[in-house]
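One chain given next:
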Amino acid sequence: DEIGMSVTDSLAMLPAASVSGFYLAHPDSRYFSVGKIGQDQLDDYAQRMALSLDDARRALAPQL
């Protein structure tokens, strides 16, 4: 049995965990990065996700 990837009539990918993408680049492109998350954003995220501040810090460590 060969396992493959397919697309439904409504263009959903099967299996659902499949990943696909188009990557476009140009030598003159300029990219931006998102800055670090502030304490107010961390507090808000923790509250909205019902997390302790320590858990939110662990989840968002690369952005802090």
Notes: The mean pLDDT is 87. DSSP finds two helices and two strands in the chain. The CA atoms of residues 35 and 45 lie 16 Å apart. The longest helix spans residues 39-48.
